[in-house]
Amino acid sequence: MKIMDRVDKILGIISMIFFTALLIVVVTQILSRYFPYQFTWTEELSRYLFVYSMVTATPVALRKSEFITVDLVPTSLPKNAQRIYESVISVLIMIFSIFLFIYGIQFTGLGMDFYAPTLGINMVYIYASIPILALLLFMYSIVYIIDRCLKNEPRNEVDDI
To answer: Where is the Tripartite ATP-independent periplasmic transporters DctQ component domain positioned along the sequence (predicted)?
Structure first.
């Protein structure tokens, strides 16, 4: 799983880059209100940066169990039953990601003829975030199940410090 730790780190860095760019664009948008020149592209770019920052952060959050959960049922189960429960949830996420990928590819095809109004980029690059997210969720669900079978507990940022 050393490879997945590297992939986690790469996705985390990419997510931070997207989110930092998002912050810069939003601050630019706010500051441009006080100047005579308005940046019309900032709202659109901030939406796209937010989407891609979530696409790259979601799989890592899945692997590290950092989503908000109601853990009343799982915590009342024995450890092995908790692992089975978490694996079943991961299988459901895998099934969902298969459907998301199939329909995401169809949706991405719709973007071939459209361009972003202010940025002028082809919308296929924006719509491609859906199948990319589906592939990452599928891959990370498999890794999550393997981690549970090997009895590896999810690692938090605090554990790495």
So the answer is: 23-147
- What is the phi/psi pair of residue 153, to 5°? -80, 150
Give per-residue pLDDT as tens, 30-65: 888 888 887 888 889 999 999 999 999 999 888 887
pTM (predicted TM-score): 0.82
Average pLDDT of the segment spanning 132-140: 93
Q: Three-class SS string for the chain? A: CHHHHHHHHHHHHHHHHHHHHHHHHHHHHHHHHHCCCCCCCHHHHHHHHHHHHHHHHHHHHHHCCCCCCCCHHHHHCCHHHHHHHHHHHHHHHHHHHHHHHHHHHHHHHHHHHCECCCCCCECHHHHCHHHHHHHHHHHHHHHHHHHHHCCCCCCCHHHHC
